[in-house]
Amino acid sequence: MRCIICKGNTIETKRTFIQEDENCIIIIKNVPAIVCSQCGEVYYKDEIAEKLEEIINRLQNMVKDVAIFEFDKVVDAA
Ligand SMILES: [Zn+2]
Question: Around ion ligand 1, which residues have CB less than 5 A away?
Fold first, then answer.
């Protein structure tokens, strides 16, 4: 795909996803992502975005303060 913002080339890679709210910070490492090589904008495929949302919803009830997860490990439990 091409970057929606600058039309630059994108590459598939892995990124750390960070979700912050009032009570907790959830860090998920090695999330498959698509990153623009020109402007650095990060995109997630629909299926990945959906899984991230599920994971965050589930973890928000469990996590206090800060927690770090590996995407591969938490996605299987969804
Ligand atoms: Zn771009």
Answer: 3, 5-6, 8, 36, 38-39, 41
